[in-house]
Design goal:
Length: about 180
């Protein structure tokens, strides 16, 4: 052990790489020295020292693994948060689409009700219009309705013009006296 301390270079600045290299040398096997018979206490101390060195090495390894696991856990938390936000976004989009479809359905029902009130037969009796004759008959009927509306609008315009003429006549008569 004293040899390791003597081999360590003394410098004003100690870098992490230098420490790593120094620790790396500490784990290399030492050159075999002269063999001597050890007493039981020396053997116990040597074995305990070796086991303590192994425990220190294992603790450092577990510390590094713990740091890696902490990093993985934080990444998993971030991923879970992103996933939760995305799920909430999908739910909001689904609710938005559903509400838009409901609104569109309500508007369609409203327009259908208005069309039923106007046409009177929009319940789906379209089988009567399978050939051109029936379509032509229906168009003729609608043309007659259109012509009657034109006649009514002409009569209304004439009645309005006569009414305005009578008002102007009355006004002139009042102003003349």
């Amino acid at each position: 052990m004293l040899e390791l301390i003597r081999q360590k270079a003394v410098s004003a600045r100690s870098s992490a790489l230098h420490n790593y290299l120094f620790e790396k040398q500490a784990f290399e096997r030492a050159a075999p020295g002269p063999t001597a018979q050890l007493i039981a206490r020396d053997t116990f101390v040597a074995e305990t020292s070796i086991k303590l060195d192994q425990l220190v090495t294992e603790l450092k390894s577990l510390g590094r693994e713990l740091q890696l696991v902490k990093g993985d856990i934080s990444e998993l938390r971030d991923e879970a948060a992103r996933s939760r936000r995305f799920s909430e976004f999908i739910d909001r989009e689904y609710k938005s689409r559903t509400s838009k479809l409901d609104e569109l359905s309500r508007r369609f029902d409203y327009l259908k009700a208005r069309f039923d009130a106007i046409d009177g037969n929009s319940k789906g009796d379209y089988q009567a219009f399978r050939d051109f004759e029936s379509v032509s008959r229906r168009l003729t009927e609608l043309g007659a309705v259109e012509r009657s509306f034109r006649d009514v609008s002409k009569r209304l315009a004439i009645s309005t013009a006569l009414f305005l003429a009578s008002i102007v006549g009355w006004l002139v008569a009042l102003l003349a006296f």
